[in-house]
Amino acid sequence: MNSWGDIFRVTIWGESHGKQVGVSIDGVPAGIALSEEDFTADLERRRAGAAGTTPRKESDIPHIVSGIYEGYTTGSPLTIEFLNENTRSGDYKNLISHPRPSHADWVAQQKWQGYNDPRGGGHFSGRITLGLVAAGVVAKKILGQAVEFSTDIIEIGGERNKERFAEIIEQARMAQDSVGGVVECCVKGIGVGLGEPFFDSAESLIAHLLFSVPAVKGIEFGAGFEAARKRGSQNNDCIISADGKTATNHAGGIVGGITNGNDIVVRAAIKPTASISSEQQTFNFETGAVEPLVIKGRHDVCIALRAAVVVESAIAIALAELKLRA
Amino acid sequence: MNSWGDIFRVTIWGESHGKQVGVSIDGVPAGIALSEEDFTADLERRRAGAAGTTPRKESDIPHIVSGIYEGYTTGSPLTIEFLNENTRSGDYKNLISHPRPSHADWVAQQKWQGYNDPRGGGHFSGRITLGLVAAGVVAKKILGQAVEFSTDIIEIGGERNKERFAEIIEQARMAQDSVGGVVECCVKGIGVGLGEPFFDSAESLIAHLLFSVPAVKGIEFGAGFEAARKRGSQNNDCIISADGKTATNHAGGIVGGITNGNDIVVRAAIKPTASISSEQQTFNFETGAVEPLVIKGRHDVCIALRAAVVVESAIAIALAELKLRA
Amino acid sequence: MNSWGDIFRVTIWGESHGKQVGVSIDGVPAGIALSEEDFTADLERRRAGAAGTTPRKESDIPHIVSGIYEGYTTGSPLTIEFLNENTRSGDYKNLISHPRPSHADWVAQQKWQGYNDPRGGGHFSGRITLGLVAAGVVAKKILGQAVEFSTDIIEIGGERNKERFAEIIEQARMAQDSVGGVVECCVKGIGVGLGEPFFDSAESLIAHLLFSVPAVKGIEFGAGFEAARKRGSQNNDCIISADGKTATNHAGGIVGGITNGNDIVVRAAIKPTASISSEQQTFNFETGAVEPLVIKGRHDVCIALRAAVVVESAIAIALAELKLRA
Amino acid sequence: MNSWGDIFRVTIWGESHGKQVGVSIDGVPAGIALSEEDFTADLERRRAGAAGTTPRKESDIPHIVSGIYEGYTTGSPLTIEFLNENTRSGDYKNLISHPRPSHADWVAQQKWQGYNDPRGGGHFSGRITLGLVAAGVVAKKILGQAVEFSTDIIEIGGERNKERFAEIIEQARMAQDSVGGVVECCVKGIGVGLGEPFFDSAESLIAHLLFSVPAVKGIEFGAGFEAARKRGSQNNDCIISADGKTATNHAGGIVGGITNGNDIVVRAAIKPTASISSEQQTFNFETGAVEPLVIKGRHDVCIALRAAVVVESAIAIALAELKLRA
Lengths: 326, 326, 326, 326
What we know:
Strand content of chain A: 15-25%
Number of strands of chain A: 15
Structural class of chain A: alpha+beta
CATH superfamily of chain A: Chorismate synthase AroC
Oligomer: homotetramer
Helix content of chain A: 10-25%
């Protein structure tokens, strides 16, 4: 479904080439100072423009259409819309008979009996994450200034040396290809006690939202998969002070599903953009044969670049929900 | 919260050393043949007994107390209870002042102001997963016989050669230590179209449940973190037949959050059991100093062994929910 | 919260004098033919214009901004917006110190610490019901043409003779007063088996939505309060045919919370419009005394007139949710 | 579904003639002193025994099986079970072919294809309300001692003179018939600001729960249906003091869906018990004809007597949910 959250409830809608994408956020406490400018910084991080990002540029101006009065949130639903301006639908019809590999094209047709909007991926477009970023901005306001997010791309194409990232991306672009990456988000100052056993562990809510973000294929907390390779004596985090700080943070700030006051550390694996410009083989449902496909349109070489702020926003939303429950 | 699911709703309760742990499952279709024997095989996989598992042995007999009439599910809530028999509460009081590293002891005290049941981890005990396994059995009945689960431990202590697993576990046991592992679950026959955009992607629901399982610290689908290291041309799965089968399955059977008819492949990183017998340093809240702690009680050397069926059950529950929504 | 429904999920937003009111509807099956014209008839029933309704007239043109492609629903969220055009905010500030009797003015200030939008009742405005009517139109499409709604005002100001309604309303208007009424909705063709025990009985879902509609203060099904005055032998409905038809319908088509195939009959008591033009006494929080208040602005004499279609829409939404669950 | 509530989540299960009926309550704050004795008073009000109630007597002893440690709630799910002891299933098979009028027998068979438990109404039995009463006791603890409930039967068989109630019930019993009644619940001390616009108004949540209670066919708040007969000048409640007290309370303590600090006043219409001892006509699905039916078993003459505490409990649950959200 297109809503998430029990208290901080985020509802999204829109299609890549429709009139708009939007988000309505319920459960926002009254009295938070908020203007359209507050969204600029995070939306800018999500925008195209840098090397490795799509040439499709949208102004991405947020229009707050409800929930604000005289500069403050009112306690009623906060709704934010983004017009779609720079759409070039061109001919997407061929994708119906000849769907793109590793895209939702074919499953969407199956699921909705061909009634889905196929233009630009329709509702599956990464453009829908605009609403997630907007909600993330509001979530961070709820969490307050004591909570700090720092989010980095720590790996691209298997390389962890950041100085080589630009080169790797450029090589992929030259090859009419794309490349994946890993995003790491660290959250400081979240405090002790967020998370609800059994099913609504902090990890569960964060992972639920992160796996909603297109292109995310793996999530780990703290030592993550590395923890599975260790012994308990190596992985256990010794508490060293009365406020729960630990000598190490292999748990990534969450034990028993509940925050323990240490930094929350989450990593998300972002697959390479499925849309690549070079020719690919895939099934043509019209001819009944595997045939070459060349995808037109404008695409990101490394979607991890723009996904970083989306990952951060998703984590902020999950934490705001948990904070409002606590 | 202790409930999960919109249609197939699983509610769990209980503490490690309380009277019972239980589960009530709502949304079970009427007319499914079900007896207490149906739970035996999966409960047996979760039971202690093998090398590397805890010496605490419970009979784990499921008592169906509602929702069955003349051998068939009735459509009203199916409730299954497991008595706690083999409890040795001993003295857990010292864990209040001197909490175990990487356990929920301290956060639980903080969150519930000391009112939580501390005996055996209380509600944080792995024993609560009995209900998850029971719900998984029912979920598999709903999915039907065409859906096959195969779940393996593919890595222990960083080693992928299965022939060495017993040795690695024994070495950890001898060292009064524990060791982590990776569980992989493969689901065949699930069909096309399960999963709901945006927030209820198949990956989101599966991950939500898996991160509820104690000790899980990472999840990946298909190529997972490896996908982040690849180029699009390497990672994309070419469709090769009219039923959506792909030449490779880097997506792990899910694209755009929706199942595409290929095998679902999920891996979960299981951290080493936090409770180890050897001495550890951790903060003593009574003395205000970091001091040595020796944990008594009976514990699993490699909790991944018993977690495998729990991981499988969680995946089955998520898929049953999605199937009933479709 | 401003969302309702598990499968057919309706999310609303907006304020009386804000930019727009809107609704996003999730869970709409793909492939339903839908255009903006489909909303005209029900929106017209809700519009002002007739005797007894407010002079504030809005064009109430529905703008579908997502979820439609080539004239059919796509399966992704259907979002419909209505611009606010004919707003005259004037000076609502005095209502903050001198709140209107039987209005939400004062409780809203208390609940949101004065941050609520006070203009025209803000989010408490009856204008928010536009979204409910729009969702009702979609709900009826889901229920299909075999399901027929007939909704009447059966009582105004205690009078049941419809020929006298116009006169009673005119008398109230002349007296600068307002008057209440009772709306009855009858639903034919709904079939057997909608409704879920225990908490999601058909009556529970319908009542939940109806008590969201401003001014509704009572709900009854079938014989309702009259049933409480009868004996069982008088109130029981004898089944007379194999399809479950009953000789009488005191149950209003619902037994044990589940539809029994007979007509669903619901009545809603609509209180007289709280805003009246004549002078009223109420507490002035600035002076600390009970003082006379004259409410300016444009108001309905008998809100039951326009509420009828809103009541019908709410019932349709509840039934669509239950149908999609079944 | 058999769960209700977002924060204070009540899950119920059981059948009239199964092993037990039970309730699990999530979201109970830690640290509430609670023992099995705390349930005695309200369970006693629900028990049979007085004139007009069924001869089936159950001990109704609550067994708390989770969520309590050393006399206090722990913050984890509180589960309470009641064994079924005094069951006489006899032959309910004839009710399958010859269903009781105004009972759920036939719709349950239709909805669950004959797999429902037919004994004693199965999951539709009033016995399921034991869990509601237990949850109500906990809800009242959460609301605190400042909140007072007073619940009365104000009408039986259309008579409002309480002195005549015993006589009316006895007459119905002698006639092998049953009789309906009206329950009124007044809640003092609830404070200002409970209730959430738009869909989760205080009235919506209360009505949702009340229409889950078997036999409830109408609900009204404050003046209720009488309000629909009045003018605004008669029905409006003038605020008379700075704490929001009103001169009259036609609103029943709720305006705009939010509590205004005055007494909450709710009335529920309880239909006469559907099971009566005298012969009734109803369709025999075996013979295909309308034929006389005599219902055996033990039944309440006036279910309103025992429903009073159930109505009160349902209201308490709704208010606890709203309080925990606020």
